Amino acid sequence: MLQGPVLQRLIARNANGSTFRELSIEELRKLPIPNVSLPEQCRIAEILRTWDEALEKLTTLRATKAQRLGSLRGTLLFGNLRLNGQRHHWTPTRLAAVTHELTERNGAKGLGRDYVMGVTKAQGVVPMREQTIAGDISRYKRLPPRAFAYNPMRINVGSIAMNHRDEEVLVSPDYVVFACNADGLDPGYLDHLRKTSWWAHYINSGGSGSVRQRTYYADLAALKLPLPDLDEQKALADVLDTARDDLEATEREIDAVTRQKRGLMQKLLTGEWRVEME
Predict the structure, then answer these.
(1) Is 32 left (phi over 0), alpha (psi -120 to 50) or beta?
(2) What is the domain range of residue 15?
(3) Mean pLDDT throughout 7-30?
(4) Are 141 and 194 in contact (CB under 8 A)?
(5) Per-residue pLDDT tens digits for 229-256
(6) How many CB atoms neighbour CB 129 within 10 A?
(7) Are residues 133 and 260 in the same domain?
(8) Which of 24, 120, 165, 271 is the most exposed place for a label (fewest CB within 10 A)?
């Protein structure tokens, strides 16, 4: 069946002018399509079905790995499962004791516009669209590597992220920026902790049962963390990083197979490539 990019490509080949326009049912019926025999149609469908089956298996695998990562975060970060049989007591510690707010501005001769980033739940720290960047970026805040930034009005929907880049970037002057104290909190540990339901519950309740409209650093800093010693934090983060990287590898594989399928559809369903019949 012709659909999506394949159908658009056929229409573009037969359209008058360089832009798309609405086509009537009668015009669609007159649209020439490749003359492919029924046996070849079945063979093409069989080939594409192989990619469909691969995507189904990979999608199931991704869901399983995502569930495993969530379970590991829930058990390792709250002491229900310990590494190497450790039994040291975890002291609840306020975030204020192991982090500090960053307020340094870009300045008149600081970083350029290419360094301005936004924060999203899905992608983390990503380049901001040019049309949303202010003309004057001197007041934009500096975000060092492995420091955190969030929009105080959107942290409740998960818009907080660690800067995984190896270089300092800029974020909106309205953002809250903070870093972990080197002798108290591992950034990787906190990055996993913020992705738990426990963290989301605190953010959404404001820690006191009331819903916050804005969450500033002082509000977030009041959160009490389940905190082992620094060495154990790093060991836990390493385990969780491995599980996260494994999940991301499967996601990249799904993207690659999806692109392969789209390419095959364009070649096979338009007749550009023909299959050999026995």
Answers:
(1) beta
(2) 4-71+244-269
(3) 57
(4) no
(5) 999 999 999 999 999 999 999 999 999 9
(6) 9
(7) no
(8) 24
218 belongs to a structural domain: yes
In a domain, residue 233? The reply is: no
Mean pLDDT on 190-195: 95
Residues 39 and 167 in one domain: no
CATH of the domain at 165: 3.90.220.20
- Strands (E) in the chain, as ranges, are 91-94, 99-102, 117-120, 124-127, 141-143, 148-150, 160-162, 169-171, 176-180, 224-227
Supply the pTM of this predicted model: 0.80
Note the pLDDT tens digit of each residue in 158-171. Answer: 889 999 999 999 99
Q: How many structural domains compose the chain?
A: 2
What are the structure tokens assigned to 39, written together? Answer: 């046996």
Same-domain check for residues 66 and 185: no
